[in-house]
Amino acid sequence: MRITTKCSITQYFNRMNQSSSSAELDPRVAFFDRHAPTWDHNGPDSAKTINRLNSLFENTGLRAGQDVLELGCGTGLYTVWLSERVAPGRVVGMDFSPQMLAQARKRDCRAEFRLADICSQRTTDDLFDAVFCFNAFPHFRDAVAALRNIRDSLRPKGIFIVLHLLGSAKLNAFHHSIPGPVAHDRLPAVSQWSVRLEPLGLGIEQLTDDDDLFLLRAQKK
Predict the structure, then answer these.
(1) Are 152 and 174 in contact (CB under 8 A)?
(2) Amino acid 124: pLDDT
């Protein structure tokens, strides 16, 4: 089952205008649009990834019944997993790439998909129990603005999660090896997170940076 929302004509064109502005401002949009049709076939084995996600689920702080905003949902491949794990909670998958979302909307997934850029504005009046960034945070061109809008999207005591199945050193080296607009995308070092989060009222509960795992969990105070 797919959850959809109705919007006015004004809201529709506002979203399209925002998308156009993001595309003009951020060359990553064209990069991900171009790779969207083949994205699921060129990445890590999805079954193995889901097995690892299941093994890490308790550590993320995600729970059944939560309303979750998934930022950088891409083609929705792991949105399906997320929506099943937090059911009957609601999942909103958000991405700035129209073509990635076009792939996501083809899935049989009990989630809503929205085209939006978290670096530009909060993008939604909804509040969530959790904001989940899986394989996404390094691609936010303005981390300060993104974190502020993430904070504003959380309910009191809500949690913010950044998850990668590689440590920051390997992940940053991988991005550096890719020609194009993502070559300089970086996951901040461990020492930088408290400096970024504490002024926003986000307290770190867990921060792991190993060779095969980066996991940050912070709670809104």
Answers:
(1) no
(2) 65
The per-residue pLDDT for 57 is 98
Range 9-220 has CATH code 3.10.450.50: no
> Which single residue is written with the structure tokens 């997993």?
81
Residue partners of 10: CB distance under 8 A and separation at least 6: none
The pLDDT of residue 9 is: 34
HEC assignment per residue over the chain: CCCCCCCCHHHHHHHHHHHHHHHHHCCHHHHHHHHHHHHHHHCCCHHHHHHHHHHHHHHHCCCCCCCEEEECCCCCHHHHHHHHHHCCCCEEEEECCHHHHHHHCCCCCCCEEEECCCCCCCCCCCCEEEEEEECCHHHCCCHHHHHHHHHHHEEEEEEEEEEECCCHHHHHHHHHCCCCCCCCCCCCCHHHHHHHHHHHCEEEEEEEEECCEEEEEEEEC
Domain boundaries, the chain: 9-220
Q: Write out residues in the chain with pLDDT < 50, as ranges.
A: 1-21
Long-range contacts at 78-87 (CB < 8 A, ≥ 24 apart): 78/46, 78/49, 78/50, 78/53, 78/134, 79/104, 79/107, 79/109, 79/111, 79/113, 80/107, 80/108, 80/109, 80/111, 81/50, 81/53, 82/111, 82/132, 83/109, 83/110, 83/111, 85/54, 85/57, 86/62
